[in-house]
């Protein structure tokens, strides 16, 4: 099962919300994926989904809030996966028109927002409905991405503005005649899951994200240490080559005492760090002092004719 379906199944089991929130959620569900059908003078509603839990949710919300005749038609998808498709149908009747007016589905979006989404709890329920009907979220093990897709620009802008009202960095784009409202940051996606009430999915997302970020941090540290080690080894190899060249051309015994000591230590301990060489040296000298001596030896080799 995809992570998106796990989230939607959790959301479809939420209970105990207020009637006004039921209507906000229905507004999001039907505005995103519902269709109005005409039969004579009466109006009906069709809502289609491949998620059985969401179909049950739609039936529950309709029956709890309105006296409507409903039926569910199950068909087998012709696509490769051949999933069942559940069509929730509200049979045409005068009561349907009253329900649609209550849900502000026969008015413009601005009026619907003003009448149904004035409180924070209803806006949360609206986002929950819109996500269940037309949203998806990637598993946190991969790239962070959550989106909702609709063919209605005004509705996409409504979703974007409501997400933005909860202080999330939401963006919107268009693709092939559809409008995509999306979040790309891990923190923003966890905030969204919290807002719509997907708390179990939120915990799973956070757990995977923590492990992922820890692994990335370890990889960064290892890569950094590996790069530093390679740099140190290359420097030591060049130092040894310079000292050997001095020995062949000039003779190490001709060097000043301090440089001669450092040269002999580097030849004797090719893998030693600067700190370790400083600890072995006579007299009081630190890591920077040893580094200065080795640089001096490299310069002497270069002055004697050594090429890189």
Automatic annotation (TrEMBL):
UniProt KW keywords: Cell cycle, Cell division, DNA-binding
InterPro entries: Homing_endonucl (IPR027434), Sporu_reg_WhiA_N_dom (IPR018478), Sporulation_regulator_WhiA (IPR003802), Sporulation_regulator_WhiA_C (IPR023054), WhiA_LAGLIDADG_dom (IPR039518)
One Gene Ontology MF term: DNA binding
Protein name per Swiss-Prot or TrEMBL: Sporulation transcription regulator WhiA
Residue span(s) of domain Sporulation transcription regulator WhiA N-terminal: 19-106
Keyword Cell cycle: yes
Span of domain Sporulation regulator WhiA C-terminal: 218-301
Gene3D superfamilies linked: Homing endonucleases
The keyword Ligase belongs to this UniProt entry's keyword annotation: no
Xref: SUPFAM superfamilies: Homing endonucleases (SSF55608)
Residue span(s) of domain WhiA LAGLIDADG-like: 124-215
Organism whose genome encodes this protein: bioreactor metagenome
GO biological process: cell division; regulation of sporulation
């Amino acid at each position: 099962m995809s992570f998106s379906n796990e989230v939607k199944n959790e959301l479809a089991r939420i209970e105990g919300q207020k009637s006004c929130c039921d209507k906000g959620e229905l507004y999001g569900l039907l505005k995103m994926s519902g269709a109005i059908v005409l039969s004579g003078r009466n109006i009906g509603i069709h809502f289609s989904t491949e998620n059985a839990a969401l179909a049950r949710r739609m039936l529950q919300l309709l029956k709890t809030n309105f006296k409507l005749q409903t039926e569910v038609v199950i068909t087998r998808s012709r696509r490769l996966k051949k999933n069942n498709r559940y069509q929730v149908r509200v049979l045409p009747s005068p009561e349907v028109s009253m329900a649609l007016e209550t849900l502000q589905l026969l008015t413009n979006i601005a009026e619907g927002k003003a009448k149904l989404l004035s409180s924070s709890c209803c806006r949360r329920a609206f986002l929950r409905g819109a996500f269940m009907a037309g949203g998806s979220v990637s598993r946190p093990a991969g790239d962070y991405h959550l989106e909702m897709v609709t063919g209605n620009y005004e509705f996409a802008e409504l979703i974007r503005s409501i997400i933005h009202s909860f202080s999330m960095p939401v963006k919107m784009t268009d693709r092939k005649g559809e409008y995509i409202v999306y979040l790309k940051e891990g923190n923003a996606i966890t905030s969204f899951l919290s807002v719509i009430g997907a708390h179990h999915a939120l915990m799973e997302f956070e757990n995977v994200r923590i492990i992922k970020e820890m692994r990335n941090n370890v990889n960064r540290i290892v890569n950094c240490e590996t790069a530093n080690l390679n740099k140190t080894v290359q420097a030591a190899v060049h130092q040894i080559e310079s000292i050997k060249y001095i020995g062949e051309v000039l003779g190490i015994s001709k060097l000043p005492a301090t440089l001669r000591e450092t040269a002999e230590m580097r030849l004797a301990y090719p893998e030693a760090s600067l700190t370790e060489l400083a600890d072995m040296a006579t007299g009081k000298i630190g890591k920077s002092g040893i580094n200065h001596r080795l640089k001096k030896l490299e310069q002497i080799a270069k002055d004697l004719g050594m090429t890189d």
